[in-house]
Amino acid sequence: MDFLVQMAEGFIGMFQEGGKTFIALVSGIIPTLITLITVVNALIKFVGEERIERFALMTTKYAILRYTVFPVLAVFFLTNPMAYSFGKFLPERQKPAFYDSAVSFVHPVTGLFPHANAGELFVWLGISAGVTTLGLSLGPLAIRYFLVGIIVILIRGLVTEWITALMIRRKEAEMNKNATLGGTISG
């Protein structure tokens, strides 16, 4: 009988803890997220979508900007998952690398800019819980997380662009080989 009581208390206790977590989010991070989203949307409207698009085209000219500044801006302004639509400014051969960079940045951005990827906020809160438990400031961790994220997205972008170029060359060589064989057989 005691076992059933413990099971029932444990079951309800799980939901009570979930309720406490929900209340903490409603009174803590959710108002911050709503405010940040409002400010970012107002900034986009104020600056103008056309100007932002022109700037995006400028930041894709060089690989170092394409895989650092460009994904950071995409994730910051459009948030996850809309950030991936910034790929429309790139030629097809660079889109996989941009996607790889942008999707890799949606985690490290949450420490400084939680509005950019509210879905990953739980990852950041889990990481930062240990630091908070020690009584340390989250600022240095958030900045390091952000900077390491930029380094990682640059490396991933460059490597993925290289792999994509390699695959395109192989595919073109295969198509040329098949075209040559097809011409030899029919000739």
TrEMBL record:
Record flagged with keyword Oxidoreductase: no
Keyword terms of this UniProt record: Membrane, Transmembrane, Transmembrane helix
GO annotation terms (biological process): phosphoenolpyruvate-dependent sugar phosphotransferase system
Transmembrane segments: 21-44, 64-86, 121-139, 145-168
Highest taxon of the lineage: Bacteria
A Pfam family it matches: EII-GUT
InterPro entries (alphabetical): PTS_IID_sorb
UniProt keyword Cytoplasm, yes or no: no
GO terms under cellular component: membrane
Matches recorded under PANTHER family: PTS SYSTEM GLUCITOL/SORBITOL-SPECIFIC EIIC COMPONENT (PTHR40399), PTS SYSTEM GLUCITOL_SORBITOL-SPECIFIC EIIC COMPONENT (PTHR40399:SF1)
NCBIfam families xrefs: EII-GUT (TIGR00821)
Protein name: PTS sorbitol transporter subunit IIC
Gene source species: Paenibacillus darwinianus
